[in-house]
């Protein structure tokens, strides 16, 4: 009887850790921003730095870490959410200038990405 209870508890704990570890994932358009916002306060209260690996998302909590993968090139970067946006069309994320440069789409302005919480 005790073994069954412990087994059930272990299973419940494992299921709970799997469900709480489930990462957020989304695919869609990405843009970048920086020059006009550099040095100003982001929605999180932090000073925006276009040279940092940060991003804006409409609803994810500030401090959320994401892996962003450019669907055209397969390049990946890791960013931290510290601002709100984008508020244009169907874009799902606005990346800092540094993140866009690292992904290689800064000259194009927009790209298609998948984001996942890490």
UniProtKB/TrEMBL annotation:
<dbReference type="InterPro" id="IPR012997">
    <property type="entry name" value="RplA"/>
</dbReference>
<dbReference type="InterPro" id="IPR036908">
    <property type="entry name" value="RlpA-like_sf"/>
</dbReference>
<keyword id="KW-0961">Cell wall biogenesis/degradation</keyword>
<dbReference type="GO" id="GO:0000270">
    <property type="term" value="P:peptidoglycan metabolic process"/>
</dbReference>
<dbReference type="InterPro" id="IPR009009">
    <property type="entry name" value="RlpA-like_DPBB"/>
</dbReference>
<comment type="similarity">
    <text>Belongs to the RlpA family.</text>
</comment>
<feature type="domain" description="RlpA-like protein double-psi beta-barrel">
    <location>
        <begin position="26"/>
        <end position="114"/>
    </location>
</feature>
<protein>
    <recommendedName>
        <fullName>Endolytic peptidoglycan transglycosylase RlpA</fullName>
        <ecNumber>4.2.2.-</ecNumber>
    </recommendedName>
</protein>
<keyword id="KW-0456">Lyase</keyword>
<keyword id="KW-0732">Signal</keyword>
<dbReference type="GO" id="GO:0008932">
    <property type="term" value="F:lytic endotransglycosylase activity"/>
</dbReference>
<feature type="signal peptide">
    <location>
        <begin position="1"/>
        <end position="25"/>
    </location>
</feature>
<comment type="function">
    <text>Lytic transglycosylase with a strong preference for naked glycan strands that lack stem peptides.</text>
</comment>
<dbReference type="GO" id="GO:0071555">
    <property type="term" value="P:cell wall organization"/>
</dbReference>
<dbReference type="Pfam" id="PF03330">
    <property type="entry name" value="DPBB_1"/>
</dbReference>
<keyword id="KW-0449">Lipoprotein</keyword>
<dbReference type="InterPro" id="IPR034718">
    <property type="entry name" value="RlpA"/>
</dbReference>
